[in-house]
Amino acid sequence: MNLTLKIWRQKNATSKGKFVTYKVNDISPNSSFLEMMDILNESIVLKGEDPVAFDHDCREGICGACSMYINGRPHGPDKAITTCQLHMRRFKDGETIVIEPWRARPFPVLKDLIVDRTSFDKIIQAGGYISVNTGGIPDANAIPIPKVDSDLSMDAASCIGCGACVAACKNASAMLFVSAKVSQFALLPQGKIEAAERVHNMVAEMDRLGFGNCTNTGACEAECPKEISISNIARLNREFLCSKIGAPKVKEETGGF
Amino acid sequence: MAELNSKIPKGQLAEKWNNYKAHTNLVNPANKRRLEVIVVGTGLAGASAAASLAELGFKVKNYCYQDSPRRAHSIAAQGGINAAKNYQNDGDSVYRLFYDTIKGGDYRSREANVYRLAEVSNSIIDQCVAQGVPFAREYGGLLDNRSFGGAQVSRTFYARGQTGQQLLLGAYSALSRQVKKGNVELFTRHEMLDVVLVEGRARGIIVRDMISGAIERHAAHAVVLATGGYGNVFFLSTNAMGSNATAVWKAYKRGAFFGNPSFTQIHPTCIPVHGDFQSKLTLMSESLRNDGRIWVPKNKEDAEKIRHGKLQPTQLAEEDRDYYLERRYPAFGNLVPRDVASRAAKERCDAGYGVGETGLAVYLDFSDSINRLGKNVIEARYGNLFQMYEKIVDENPYKTPMMIYPAVHYTMGGLWVDYELMTTVPGLFAIGEANFSDHGANRLGASALMQGLADGYFVLPYTIQNYLSDQIRVPNFSPDLPEFLRTETEAKARLQKLMDVKGNQTVDSFHKRLGHFMWEYVGMGRNAEGLKKAITEIAKLREEFWKDVKIPGELNEINPELEKAGRVADFLELGELMARDALDRKESCGGHFREEYQTPEGEALRDDQNLMFVSAWEFTGENKEPIMNKEPLDYEFVEVKQRNYK
To answer: If we measure between CA atoms, which residue out of B55, B22, B127 comes closest to residue B461?
Structure first.
């Protein structure tokens, strides 16, 4: 396959970026999208120029590092996959492909297609955990959990933290990401104990970091490579409301709980 | 030759760890606050260790090269984690898990370590459930298990095909909690370049900030390496693109011995290689062997027709198929350990029975299970794996059998550590895949997650205190000490040297050539001639690399080519050591198969008389031959015999 690529190039966080056009030829339809990028980069390096920087690591759709906005869609045209799982057979010979980084203020571009997603880590640090120390834990089967709850919790827990939901959202909202973690724990008895503090602190941190509001367009769900359901956002809203009504014990700066 | 002290506690096997814990030195809470520990890596071992040490009160600094700790490659483990809970009432016990692991490792691991691993395995499951890890459950609400290779019980806990992800996110959440509390300082997009020794003890590291390119000096009372394995020396492996050996290799060059470098695990069920543009291999979980049956055509003519697309596998009659694992190993069938399954696949393909365009593939067929259990059951068990397969190969595995072939997956070798997980450099610890410790010559499925978390949650937090207890009077180190400045200068000089080569070939092209030598001569089947060739060829390639590698860009910016170059430079040295170790070990054991040493049936032939030891390689200087030290393995409690899965 022969392709034309229009790729966002930006030297660093402070410089101004622009699109640069590249041609790649003789690409196998069986190669993955990132292997196509490897071939492009190999040719750029041999010319002595700076190759296109992009995040990637596991290349099997689970680490959440890869993050390309391809032809106007996070992770490209296919449903339920990450960029690294996208294959060139999905494109037509002679096609022009536009490749951009995630675009959201809380994800500033660091170079080319690499963005800074540490804001996601900060949201988890604000409360995305159950406060147990190592050791002194009762037997794993001490608390039976209905299979249906456990399965729903697992659905939510499949989030890979890639940020496609934010990139897809016109408001750059992180609600799907936050709701996935809140739901995972809210559905389990272990997580209920700190449910109110958790949802309060995570939402507060999300707001503080500058993510936008949710207006229920559903773009996040449509683009999520792990098909995290938007119903988790409904559960987040419910948990948030309950934390305001039912549990006045929420401490503001607890410094972790 | 150096004297290796493995520090195995005295007493009966079942009492060693309890005795150790009862008598080891501890650090009191006030002193813990003053002691700093560096943990490099945020995978299962690193994140669990950093979180657990911080919970105890130590000041922890934690580093990873990824943009977030959650992306460490433990995340990609699919199938599950073993524990001796015996929830299935099928006869499991701590002893049986221990025994299976020792046997699976082909009697090349330490009894005391493996027993401890089996002992703490149950606590890991408890810990993870308390953290909110959503393991698979039965309708009654209790935890479900499945079986894995090398075991006759069902002891594997799992979270769909994403067990590693869920366990890592559990450890990551514990870590995040300690970051918020201020007990862990996190350094993402930081790559370790060297370890700093002060008066013979590990006291810090040199790292590169991968965004600014700045070289930084970080000091602590102890350094823990949890940097994973070195499978990427083969270029194509199931490891993440960034997985590398730089941290352990630099530790080796600073005096830490390297244990069993040649012990590599080739995983039997990976998606076959399909082109030379390929950048990595994708694993299909071993759990698939629970319900999938492995076969190739019985007749070479059929295999040939299939390779040329003239015959579909589904058209082949039952009697024309050779379920070779079931034929050769009736007792374990498709669930033989990985090394055995991989070699059997290679044997069939080498003999001309392979399928796929290249002839380097065998079938993993689910049609029997789909008929027996229904498609929906298979989908519930393996849905995400089937989807992953279809995305890559563009074939529907519910209809056509999957094609699989062995691929490099895990390295049992690693930094030599004693019972306390300390390397031969005082104050330098290695945990998880980065050490050599528990899997001998072959790791059983679902045991890597177990070992990573055992080391991080339940072993290191005890053993490191024994070291730190006599460090309480040592004030915090200044990273401005001459030792730090000197190591920093060396690290900078090396990067500058790489940039200054200004040659004509890309880093990847060197890496691919190295990978080719490694796979060809230090891969699944090894022989003296090939290994000798590998040693000379790798040395030549290394020389060429330093004369002709081309790295664009600058030092002080995000520079992925420079990052790769540093890693490949280390792989080019490590690959040679692996070949040396493989050449030296004149026997076949586990994943190390020397073609000269096999039984008439083609099974691995060990030499227990002479080779029942851990090889611990000692660096003696650049371009000098390393020294091989031996740690003899005593089997006090287990009767050593030839592995038999028939």
So the answer is: B55
Number of domains in chain B: 3
pLDDT, tens only, B100-127: 999 999 999 999 999 999 999 999 999 9
Q: Full-prediction pTM beyond 0.95?
A: yes
Looking at the complex, does the CB of residue A129 fall below 8 Å from at least one CB of chain B?
A: yes
Q: Which amino acid is at B634?
A: D
- The reply to whether A123 and A91 lie within a common domain is no
Q: Enter the ipTM.
A: 0.96
Full residue range of the structural domain in which residue A46 is found? 3-111
- Let me know: does B157 contact B81? Beta carbons within 8 Å: yes
Tens digits of residue pLDDT in B22-80: 999 999 999 999 999 999 999 999 999 999 999 999 999 999 999 999 999 999 998 89
A55-59, A198-202, B420-424, B642-646: which has the minimum mean pLDDT?
B642-646
Nearest to residue B270, comparing CAs of B95, B78, B119, B420?
A: B78
Closest CB to B70: pick one of A78, A161, A257. Answer: A161
Instruction: Dump pLDDT digits (tens) for B544-593.
Output: 999 999 999 999 999 999 999 999 999 999 999 999 999 999 999 999 99
Supply the CATH number for residue B99's domain: 3.50.50.60
Q: Give domain status of residue A188, yes or no.
A: yes
Q: Are residues A100 and A172 in the same domain?
A: no
Question: CA-to-CA distance for B451 and B512, rounded, in angstroms?
Answer: 31
Q: B8: which 2 tokens?
A: 């195995």
A125 and A240 fall within a common domain: yes
Alpha carbon of residue B197 to chain centroid: 26
Please report whether residue A253 resides in a domain.
no
Which residue out of B119, B239, B391 would a mutagenesis test of the A interface target, given it has the greatest number of A Cβ atoms within 10 Å?
Answer: B391
**Chain A positions in Cβ-Cβ contact with residue B282 (cut-off 8 Å):** 59-60
Residue A254 has pLDDT above 80, yes or no: no
Question: Chain B window 58-117: which residues touch A at a Cβ cutoff of 8 Å?
Answer: 66-73, 75-76, 85, 87
Same domain, B312 and B376: yes
Quote the minimal CA–CA distance from B334 to chain A in Å. Answer: 25
Q: Which residues pair with B40 in a beta bridge?
A: B63, B225
User: Is residue B395 less than 8 Å (CB to CB) from chain A?
Assistant: no
Is A1 at the interface with chain B, CB within 8 A? no
Give the separation between CA B494 and CA B289, rounded to whole angstroms.
46
Q: Rounded mean pLDDT of A13-20?
A: 97
Domain boundaries, position B136: 13-263+412-471
A chain contacts of residue B69, beta-carbon cutoff 8 Å:
121
> Are B278 and B206 contained in the same domain?
no
* pLDDT at A250 exceeding the cut of 80: no
Sign of CA dihedral B369, B373, B377, B379: positive
The Cα–Cα gap between B244 and B372 comes to 43
Distance (Å) from the alpha carbon of B577 to chain A's nearest alpha carbon: 26
What pLDDT, in 10s, does the model give residues B368-427? Answer: 999 999 999 999 888 888 988 998 999 999 999 999 999 999 999 999 999 999 999 999
Token pair, residue B523, equals 């891969």
Q: Identify which of A174, A157, A178 has the alpha carbon closest to the alpha carbon of residue A166.
A: A174
Q: Do B130 and B175 fall within a single domain?
A: yes
Task: Tell me if A157 and B166 make a contact (CB, 8 A cut-off).
Answer: yes
Determine contact: A153 vs chain B, CB below 8 A: yes
> Which single residue is written with the structure tokens 């049986």?
B96
| Residues in B 217-246 with any Cβ partner in A closer than 8 A | 238, 240-242
Q: Which of A45, A135, A158 sits opposite B561 (nearest CB)?
A: A45
| Residue contact A51–B552, C-beta within 8 A | yes
Nearest neighbour of A56 by CB, restricted to B169, B241, B461 = B241
Residue A250 domain flag: no
Q: Does B338 qualify as catalytic in the annotation?
A: yes
Nearest CB neighbour to A28, from listed B133, B238, B277: B277
Q: Choosing among A32, A52, A60, A226, which should be mutated to test the B contact, i.e. which has the most B CBs within 10 A? A: A60
